[in-house]
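Saturday, quiet lab. Running sequence design on the structure tokens for the scaffold JK sent over.
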């Protein structure tokens, strides 16, 4: 009898979410550790009792949020850049994606209330650089690159507002960003990315424009509109 992989046949709920939940659970229980290689696609699909297409789509979602990484010609591995105990699991276990998005919005608005008047031209240039990276990635249809630049935009946003190294806050925002994208990862490779990128690029530009005039009300309005767009997408998913 061969070595067990730890995976079980999918029985209830959507296959997509169950595949993700099994992988996250096995990581959480240290069955698979950072740097470990997952079973090959054929074996894993067989163990789970799902099609290879369903498996691929689920793995894409986990790749996007940094849980696993694909190495061309070598398979799929658990990321060595492992995350804190609450990373992404909060979507599946503790709260709704809607509340996570609202928490992101409230944190960024709170940071803006404290730091908007201390924003410098250099800070604005840093945000413009991230937005330019998002636009370039979109032009090249590099959607993973787009998502990375978007995450860094929001990371830089917190940094320019608090004006000091605040690792707990930065880690929290990073985890919340990844958790949001876990919730919408089914859509990441179609409607969310392909059809809504112009809307999201415009939303990020409005945030920068509000920073330029150092208006808290304008920043609050821009952030609220941006996160409402994400909430709308969650409701459609």
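Result came back. Writing it out in full:
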């Amino acid at each position: 009898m061969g070595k067990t992989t730890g995976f079980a046949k999918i029985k209830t709920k959507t296959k997509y979410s169950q595949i993700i939940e099994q992988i996250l659970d096995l990581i959480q229980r240290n069955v698979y550790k950072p740097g470990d290689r997952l079973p090959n696609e054929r074996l894993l699909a067989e163990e789970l009792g799902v099609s290879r297409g369903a498996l691929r789509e689920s793995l894409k979602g986990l790749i996007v949020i940094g849980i696993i990484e694909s190495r061309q010609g070598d398979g799929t591995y658990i990321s060595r850049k492992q995350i804190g105990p609450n990373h992404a699991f909060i979507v599946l276990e503790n709260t709704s994606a809607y509340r996570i998005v609202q928490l992101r919005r409230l944190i960024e608005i709170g940071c803006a209330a404290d730091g908007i008047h201390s924003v410098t031209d250099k800070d604005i240039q840093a945000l413009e650089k991230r937005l330019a990276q998002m636009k370039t990635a979109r032009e090249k249809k590099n959607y993973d690159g787009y998502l990375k630049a978007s995450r860094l935009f929001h990371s830089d946003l917190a940094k320019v507002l608090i004006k000091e190294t605040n690792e707990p806050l930065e880690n929290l925002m990073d985890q919340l960003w990844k958790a949001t994208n876990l919730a919408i990862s089914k859509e990441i490779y179609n409607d969310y990315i392909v059809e809504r990128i112009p809307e999201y690029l415009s939303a990020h530009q409005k945030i920068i424009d509000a920073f330029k005039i150092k208006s808290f009300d304008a920043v609050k309005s821009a952030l609220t509109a941006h996160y409402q767009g994400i909430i709308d997408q969650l409701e459609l998913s």
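Notes for JK: Confidence is low (pLDDT under 50) at residues 84-94. The longest helix spans residues 216-236. Ask whether to fix the surface positions before the next round.
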